[in-house]
Amino acid sequence: MSEAQPSKGTTTFESYTSDVEECSHKSQDGDRGTVPAIFHYQICAELIAIAREGGAYAHKPNEGTEATDNTAFHPDQKAWQEKGADRPGVLKNFAKPENFANPRYNCGFMYFDGFLVIDHEGQTLKPFRVIPLTLSSKFEGWRAEAIRRSDPRVRNMDLMARMPVKVEASVDGIPTRKPLVKINAIAGRQSRFREQAGAITWSRPTASNVQNFLWSLLPQDCIDNNLALPRDLTQQERGKLLELNAGTKPRRARKVRSTRC
Which of 52, 63, 114, 241 lies deepest, with the highest CB count within 10 Å? Predict the structure, then answer.
């Protein structure tokens, strides 16, 4: 068994507590298979119920038609909205601030009632403190962008792992489960948010011509204080941005314009 078992009961995720436990140790022989595991999709309803005890969103995230196609409550994100005063702080900046402190806590593995939590493919989940315990398949691009800016270690696969799955086929009586949303669709939602808002990604360098174009649209106050553009791009500005992103490849430009989630 593991060198240091997670304590039974609760684990603090910064400002809120849940029944999900975390452990940063493998078993002594390095074999995770010796630890009992449970699929995330099996406990979605329980995770949503646990989170609901902490409150409710002021601006409810998009949700699907099924009861478990829902984003669990996260109190640090209670007031989040795409625009206005309650926009996530990381979306109010244009570029990543030089003094931005990346989270450095040891993420470990996610546990629930002593079971190691795994996704539909058997991969372990990491209990990132900034990600709600479950995510709807309709999870918005601006929320995903805010989460990934808040903790650069978060990948789109970490978001997808918390979304619902569907039974796609049955092989020898064993159901095959696939995510309702593909990983490129999650990335596409973030990309379309940035395209609409005139924002740049913080997860990789932005081409200088793209950044300079967006920089030229910022009011002087935004430039002086590293603030995001206080409005959406016009249709003409978005067209110019797509051209810059596509470079000299018209076929790529058509593909970008036609992308849908």
Answer: 241
CA atoms of 208 and 95, how far apart (whole Å): 13
CB 242 within 8 A of CB 253: yes
- Sign of the C-alpha dihedral, residues 139, 91, 128, 156? positive
For the CA atoms of 56, 83, 89, 86, the dihedral, rounded to the nearest 10 degrees, stands at -40
Report the length, in residues, of the chain: 261
Q: What is the pLDDT along the chain (261 residues), one digit of tens a residue?
A: 333 333 333 333 333 334 444 433 344 445 544 789 999 999 999 999 999 999 999 999 999 999 999 999 999 999 999 999 999 999 999 999 999 999 999 999 999 999 999 999 999 999 999 999 999 999 999 999 999 999 999 999 999 999 999 988 777 777 888 999 999 999 999 999 999 999 999 999 999 999 999 999 999 999 999 999 999 999 999 999 999 988 634 554 444 443 333
CA distance 69 to 165: 9
CB 56 within 8 A of CB 71: no
Token representation of residue 46:
């329980």
Do the beta carbons of residue 38 and residue 112 sit within 8 Å? yes
SS3 64: coil
